[in-house]
Design goal:
Number of strands: 12
Number of domains: 2
Structural class: alpha/beta
Radius of gyration: 34 Å
Number of helices: 20
Helix content: 55-70%
CATH topology of the largest domain: ABC transporter transmembrane region fold
Largest sheet: 6 strands, mixed
Strand content: 5-15%
CATH architecture of the largest domain: Up-down Bundle
Strand order of the largest sheet: 6-9-10-3-11-12
Distance between the termini: 54 Å
CATH class of the largest domain: Mainly Alpha
CATH superfamily of the largest domain: ABC transporter type 1, transmembrane domain
C-alpha cells in the first residue's frame, strides 16, 4: 500500500488520479450538456428578437434547426457523459471493495479494532460512496460552467443581472458549506453505528445455538435492539440535516431565480433591455435552478465521500498484527512445539514426526483452544513464549502462506459457506480427493439423500444442514485439502458414537503416511491414533497409546471413557 492511501484524503486523491482520463471526457461531455441547456433559453431570446425584427420564415426555420442541434447536443452529451462517469464510478468502487476485502482476508490480520460486520459495511457502502467522487467532480465543474455561461449571457444583456447571478451563487454556496460539514460529521457517526449494528447481527447469528441453549436469546435481542436504536437515532439526525440542507438549497435557488426574473422584468419595463433579452433572462432564471441545485448539492456529496474514505483508511492503514518471515519449511511433515507459554499453556513441549497420527487429550477446553490458535498462527509468534517449528523451521521465520500451504488447522466450528456441498469440500475445484474425503468423513449419506448429490445447495452458514452434517462437511473439506500436516480440533463432537467410530477408522486410513494431529476427547479417535499425549494444566503429563493409558492412568480413564 502506498503512503497516500493511508488517509481519507489520500484515498480520494488516488481515486481521482486513477480516473483522470474518464473524468476529463465526462467533464467535457457534461460541460457540453450544461452549455447546451444554457444555450436553449439564450436561443429562444434571440429567436424572439429576430422574429420581431425581421418577421421572416427563413429566419424562423433556421432558428428551429438551431434549436434541434442544441437539443441533440444536450441529449447525446448527457447520455455518453453519464455512461463514462458511471462506468468509472462502478469500476473504482469495485477496486476499493476488493482492496478492503483483501485486507480482511490476507493471512496476516490487521489491528483495525473492527469487527467483521463493520469491515463488511466499509467494503460495500463506504467503497461505493467513496467512488462517488468520480461523478461528483465532473458534475460540479459542469454545473459551474452553466452558472458562468448564464452569468456572462445575462451580463451581456445587463451587467447587473450578471453580477446578481455571481453574488447569489457565492452566497448560496457559503451558506450550504456550513451545513455540508455537519452532514459529513453526522454521516461518519451514522456509518460507524450501522456497522456496529451489522457486526452485532453477525455475532448473534453465529452464536444463536449457544444462546438458545442457556436461554440468552432475549438478552441478546435487547443488546442488538439498543445498538440498532442508536443507529436509527443517528440516521434520523442525519436525515434532518439532509432535509434542512435540501430545503435551504431549494429555497435559496428559488430566491435567486426569482430575483433574476424580477430584476429582468424591471429592467425591461424601464427600457434598458429588449423583449428578447427579457425572454432570455426569464428562461435562464428558470434553467439556472437545476445547475444551482446540482452545484449546491456537490459539497454534501464531497463530505460524504470523504467520511467514507476515512473509514476505509481505518482498514487499509491499520498495521499488521505481525511481521511474517520469508522462508519456507524444509521437506517433511514434522511438527514441534517447544516450551510454549501462552494463557493456560506452561512450557508445553511435544514433537510429532512426519507421517505420524497423534491425538492430544486436553483436559481443559481453554488449553485446547489456545493450542489451536497458536498452531493456526492466529496468535503472532511474538505474543507467546517458546517456539513452534514446522518442517524444522520456526514459524516466526516462515511466510504465513508457506505455513498454511504445509499445515492446515481445522477448528471445531469450521465455517460453512453458501454454495453447494462440492464447493464447500473443494473450493479450489481440483476434485482430486473429494470422493475419498466424502467417504472418510461419513458424508456419503448426506450426498445420497439429495438427487443433486454433491451439487446440493447449501445455505449461508449451513442453515439447511444439521449440526452433525455441518461438522462432517467441515471435516471432508479438511481431508480433501490433503495437507502435509493436518490439525483437527474436536471433529466429531456432533455425531453419534457409531459414526464417530467409522470416521476415526477412515481418517486414520486416509491420512496414513501424512502427519495428523487430533485434539479430542473422543475414545474412537484416541484409539485410532499411534499415540496419545495428555495435556493437563498446560503441560504434557502422560504419553502412550490409548489402551495403555486406560489401564495405567485413572484420571485419563475418567476423562475420556464413555
Amino acid at each position: 500500500m502506498t503512503a497516500p492511501d493511508r488517509t481519507g484524503s489520500g484515498i480520494l486523491r488516488t481515486a481521482l488520479r486513477r480516473n483522470a482520463g474518464a473524468m476529463a471526457w465526462g467533464t467535457l461531455l457534461m460541460g457540453m450538456y450544461q452549455a447546451g441547456e444554457t444555450a436553449f433559453p439564450i436561443a429562444l431570446g434571440l429567436i424572439v428578437e429576430h422574429t420581431l425584427r425581421e418577421r421572416s420564415l427563413g429566419s424562423l426555420a433556421l432558428s428551429i434547426a438551431a434549436l434541434a442541434v442544441i437539443i441533440t447536443t444536450v441529449s447525446l452529451s448527457w447520455r455518453f457523459g453519464m455512461r463514462i462517469l458511471q462506468k468509472a464510478n462502478t469500476t473504482e468502487a469495485h477496486r476499493w471493495r476488493v482492496r478492503v476485502a483483501a485486507c480482511g482476508l490476507q493471512p496476516v490480520a490487521r489491528d483495525a479494532d473492527l469487527k467483521s460486520g463493520e469491515v463488511l459495511t466499509i467494503a460495500t457502502e463506504d467503497a461505493d460512496q467513496t467512488a462517488d467522487i468520480i461523478e461528483v467532480v465532473p458534475l460540479l465543474i459542469s454545473s459551474l460552467v452553466a452558472v458562468l455561461v448564464t452569468a456572462v449571457a445575462l451580463g451581456m444583456a445587463n451587467v447587473w443581472l450578471g453580477v446578481l447571478v455571481i453574488v447569489g451563487t457565492v452566497a448560496i454556496l457559503s451558506i450550504l458549506s456550513v451545513l455540508s460539514k455537519r452532514i459529513g460529521a453526522g454521516t461518519r457517526e451514522q456509518q460507524a453505528r450501522v456497522a456496529r449494528a451489522g457486526a452485532k447481527v453477525a455475532d448473534l447469528i453465529s452464536g444463536l445455538r449457544p444462546l438458545h441453549g442457556f436461554g440468552g436469546t432475549h438478552a441478546a435481542f435487547l443488546s442488538y435492539r439498543k445498538v440498532s436504536t442508536e443507529a436509527r437515532s443517528q440516521a434520523v439526525t442525519v436525515a434532518k440535516v439532509n432535509g434542512a440542507y435540501a430545503g435551504a438549497a431549494q429555497t435559496l435557488n428559488a430566491v435567486l431565480a426569482t430575483a433574476v426574473t424580477l430584476t429582468a422584468g424591471w429592467l425591461a419595463f424601464d427600457g434598458r433591455i429588449t423583449i428578447g433579452q427579457l425572454v432570455m433572462a426569464v428562461g435562464l432564471a428558470q434553467f439556472i435552478m437545476e445547475p444551482l441545485k446540482l452545484f449546491s448539492e456537490m459539497p454534501k456529496y464531497v463530505m460524504i465521500a470523504r467520511a467514507s474514505a476515512e473509514r476505509m483508511a481505518l482498514v487499509l492503514a491499520a498495521p499488521a498484527v505481525m511481521t511474517p518471515g520469508t522462508e519456507r519449511p524444509a521437506a517433511g511433515g514434522d511438527l514441534e512445539v517447544d516450551g510454549v507459554r501462552y494463557g493456560s499453556l506452561r512450557e508445553l513441549k511435544f514433537h510429532v514426526s512426519a507421517g505420524e497420527f497423534v491425538a492430544i487429550a486436553a483436559y481443559q477446553p481453554r488449553a485446547a483452544a489456545e493450542l489451536v490458535s497458536i498452531l493456526a498462527v492466529n496468535v503472532p509468534p511474538g505474543a507467546y513464549g517458546g517456539v513452534v517449528r514446522v518442517g524444522g523451521r520456526e514459524v516466526a521465520d516462515l511466510s504465513i502462506e508457506a505455513v498454511r500451504e504445509r499445515m492446515l488447522v481445522n477448528p471445531y466450528d469450521g465455517e460453512i459457506f453458501a454454495g453447494t456441498l462440492r464447493t464447500n469440500i473443494d473450493p479450489a475445484g481440483t476434485g482430486r480427493l473429494v470422493p475419498a474425503a466424502v467417504e472418510a468423513s461419513m458424508l456419503v449419506d448426506v450426498v445420497a439423500l439429495h438427487p443433486e448429490g454433491l451439487d446440493y445447495g447449501v445455505r449461508d452458514r449451513g442453515a439447511n444442514l444439521s449440526g452433525g452434517q455441518r461438522q462432517r462437511l467441515s471435516l471432508a473439506r479438511a481431508l480433501a485439502a490433503d495437507a502435509d500436516i493436518l490439525v483437527l480440533h474436536d471433529p466429531t463432537t456432533a455425531v453419534d458414537a457409531v459414526t464417530e467410530q467409522l470416521i476415526a477408522r477412515n481418517v486414520a486410513e486416509l491420512r496414513r503416511g501424512r502427519t495428523t494431529v487430533v485434539i479430542t476427547s473422543s475414545p474412537a479417535l484416541l484409539d485410532a491414533a499411534d499415540r496419545v499425549l495428555v495435556l493437563d494444566d498446560g503441560v504434557i503429563t502422560a504419553e502412550d497409546t490409548h489402551r495403555n493409558l486406560l489401564t495405567t492412568d485413572e484420571n485419563y480413564s475418567l476423562a475420556v471413557a464413555r
